[in-house]
Amino acid sequence: MITAAANQRADASRALIIFAKQPAPGAVKTRLAPPLTPETAAELYACMLQDTLDMALHLAGITPFIFYQGGAGAAGFFAAAAPGIAAEPQQGRDLGERMKRAFAAIAARGCREIAIIGTDAPDLPAGYVVAAFTQLEDEHTDVVFGPAADGGYYLLAMKRVWDELFLDIPWSSAAVLAVSAAKAKAAHLGVALLPPWYDLDTPADLERPALLAENTTAARTGKFLRRMRLSAT
């Protein structure tokens, strides 16, 4: 359980949106089942979620907000899993609209610099998130992308809501980043890139040495994966 009251301690001028799901079997990490069962995939996702929240809560001067998907019990789940972090359901027909509405909702609170991440990169270095906000301090930078190994992005940060970045994007494809960056440049926006990182999305990712290491920053995820490997032997 995450217990720090982050929304009461951080500077609201910088906000980190976390897109998350309620860990329900059959609703999360479906690309990992098989080899995992739907139940095991949900357990893994719960670990990834908690590792992501833990990282976010340790970012000085950055307020985390959760936007979630889930069933009737989702609000109660996130209230228990992350007390002190404001959480509300995602709204929109597709990923782009849901992201745009989340950005707009946080901008309406007065936040000047906003970033969004998911929960698929549980060992994402906190320094990369901080670097995104540092990049936004540059007057020539309007948008920051964190390139993901699969052709998407693990982070998007902006100074204001640019609708172009959420319209007609081939979501869940290897062209997401390329199309998004092209749209930003076509709108004459200054674009900055963070170092690349990866998502835990495929069976091969379950064997990533960085996640399996005892000293991984994704402590819960790493422990779960190591235990799963031992049980398979």
Number of helices: 8
* Major β-sheet profile: 7 strands, mixed
Estimated radius of gyration: 17 Å
The secondary structure category is: alpha/beta
- Would you count the extended β strands for me? 7
Annotated CATH homologous superfamily: Spore Coat Polysaccharide Biosynthesis Protein SpsA, Chain A
Q: Tell me, briefly, the overall form.
A: globular
| CATH architectural grouping | Alpha-Beta Complex
What percent of residues are in strands? 15-25%
H-E order: HEHEHEHEHEEHEHH
Helix content: 25-40%
pLDDT < 50 stretches: 1-11
User: What top-tier CATH class fits best?
Assistant: Alpha Beta
Mean pLDDT reading? 93
CATH topology: Spore Coat Polysaccharide Biosynthesis Protein SpsA, Chain A
- What is the number of independent domains? 1
Strand order of the largest sheet: 3-2-1-4-6-5-7
What separation lies between the terminal Cα atoms? 30 Å
Quick summary of this structure?
With 233 residues, the chain is an alpha/beta fold.
What does this protein look like?
The protein is an alpha/beta fold and 233 residues long. It has a single domain, classed as Spore Coat Polysaccharide Biosynthesis Protein SpsA, Chain A, CATH 3.90.550.10. The chain is 36% helix and 16% strand. The protein contains eight helices and seven strands, in the order αβαβαβαβαββαβαα. The chain has helices at 6-9, 38-57, 74-81, 95-107, 126-136, 176-186, 209-212, 219-232, and strands spanning 14-21, 63-69, 87-89, 113-117, 143-147, 153-158, 191-193. A seven-stranded mixed β-sheet has the order 3-2-1-4-6-5-7, sandwiched between helices. Helix 2 (38-57) packs antiparallel against helix 8. The longest helix is centred in the N-terminal third of the chain and has 20 residues, at 38-57. The chain starts with 5 loop residues before the first helix and ends with a helix. Residues 1-11 have low confidence and may be disordered.
